[in-house]
Amino acid sequence: MEKTVLDMKNGEKAEVAAIEGGCMLGMRLEALGIRSGKQVTRISRQLLGGPVIVAIDGRQTALGRGTASKIRVVPLHC
Amino acid sequence: MRVLLMGNPNVGKSALFSRLTGTHVVAANYSGTTMEFTRGKLKLPGKTLELIDVPGANTLDPTNKAEEVAVKMVAEGDLIVNVVDATNLERNLKLTLQLLQTGKPMLVVLNMWDEALEHGMDIDVAALEQRLGVPVATTCALSGEGIKTLAGKIEQARPGSVRFDDEDLWSVIGDIVEQVQKIRHRHPSVGQALSHATVHPVIGPFIGVLFLFLSFAFVAYVGDWLHEEVLEELFEFIWLPVTEWISAFLGGTGFMHSVLIGELIEGEIDFELSFGLLTTGLFIPIAVVLPFVFCFYFVLSVLEDVGYLPRLGVLVDTIMHRLGLHGLSIVPMMLGLGCNVPGAMAGRILETRKERFIAMTLLSICVPCMAQLAMVAGLLGPAGVVGFGGVFGTLFVLWIVLGVLMKRFIKGETPEILVDMPPYRLPYWKGLFKKVYMRMRGFIKEALPYVLLGVLIVNFLYALGVIQFIGHVFAPVVTTLFGLPQEAIGALVVGFLRKDVAVGMLAPLGLNVRQLIVASVVLVVYFPCVATFVVLFKELGIKDLFKATLLMVVVALLLGGGLNLLLRVVGL
Ligand SMILES: Nc1nc2c(ncn2[C@@H]2O[C@H](COP(=O)(O)OP(=O)(O)O)[C@@H](O)[C@H]2O)c(=O)[nH]1
Question: What ipTM was assigned to the predicted interfaces of this complex?
Fold first, then answer.
């Protein structure tokens, strides 16, 4: 049941499974606390193709949609 | 000995730096404030060390320019003070461990200790010291708590004792966090709810417009009040008698009189129209421009310290992408409204050449600085809504159109936005006013000499007949194309140096509404002031600067001519 952060619903929680794309993107995301095994919560998505907001460790981060579609996650059911 | 202050972006490094050195550094609540490093002297009992504020870095495997600089500087330091955001331990420890691996003597500072306590986080400092093998201090850079203890511990800095393989980095970090940090309770705070609302896809933009409107209204009304009720009065009561005495002393005419006092208007000194060094030269920057600059920097600093700017960046991201930029480039644009110089410098945070070119060109063409805005607003006063709408509407449309065109025709990429949104923080007023004061001082130091020089040059050029001569040469452009009186050329010449002085020169010309609009718009777009030009040269390089300049000239000619025609057609 893998999907990407872009496909998540607002308020949904998931665990990061993998990050696609270059190693540079991986390092940048890691610097913001986004890496395999971390739990992310989707907060919202701006209208008209705008960024996606997620929370990790209680901190919010804004991601462009291209970036969001490169973060593969497994939804958590709780 | 050289001490490096290192840490992730936005952990309060600049604030700590100014605490430790007493030097005032502008600290801001968005990532990447400190791109250029700052150095200062750190006084300890018995010795003085050199302290360097290294640009914020998340890792020593560089992913951006700031990190490249940081890596280079590690090699040159003798001792590292690693600043960590105590509320965000896990994310910060990566850099800490990487720094420990360099084997340099080190000390870890848990800053934002006040917030950590407030959030119910318990960090076992002794256990952390033991795990890392280096001294750990706790501070609140805002209140200054813990700074003394920190300074005392610098002597005890030593190489750390953690050993690990690179692959195990995160598991080691996870292990450390598990051991030293206990979170007692974590109820969602008011700040968090507010944070959600301000980036809500529907409510967010409304709040954004409201904030911007309130900011604008504050600057306009409070600025105007300070200008009219305070500074103008001060000038009338205190400075007018002095200048009148000087005027009488100089006999009311002659070259010295026209340089120092300027022309008497109906036998009296008029601070706005006389155009002498001691009259208009001081009145414009201090009584007209400064109140607005103060209000603007106050509002901007509040938005910055509270942490609103990255959120604003998120809200405008979609629009900015249409212009070949991403949301965060709103920051240089906003700064540019204060003064184009720091605005253009902030353009550095943008990653690609394309973005930097677009942002800096748009900034220097379409974004008037506060000095210019204040003067234009004064000039347009009689023209009312039509005047304001005409000038600012034109500039806004131009901003969009030029952006869209540049996005199409400038080669290169525009990366997506990727930004951490710091929690909302109440501003620390003392720090905030210090910052506003620093920015105002920067303005006065930069602007006052140029204004005085501008006024001086105007007087000389008129006395020598140069402006009249240039006026004749360019008469076709000015009178036919722009529909302005020939004397307006003087303002365009001086505008290269200082735009506020240039706008001031238009005041005595008795322009009609159409001419006011055309002249104001042309003055904004045709060229940035010298100071901005120098920064553009440094940031863009000669080739791109040439392109940008060409664009400015073409835009000014087309727009000035077009507006003149259009406004004539609608009967102004
Ligand atoms: N609550 C709290 N806020 C702080 C502390 N230190 C800095 N800040 C605020 O955090 C923000 C970032 O600080 P700054 O010095 O610009 O961080 P830098 O990017 O690491 O240089 C500013 O708004 C500061 O006012 C602290 O110890 N406690």
Answer: 0.90
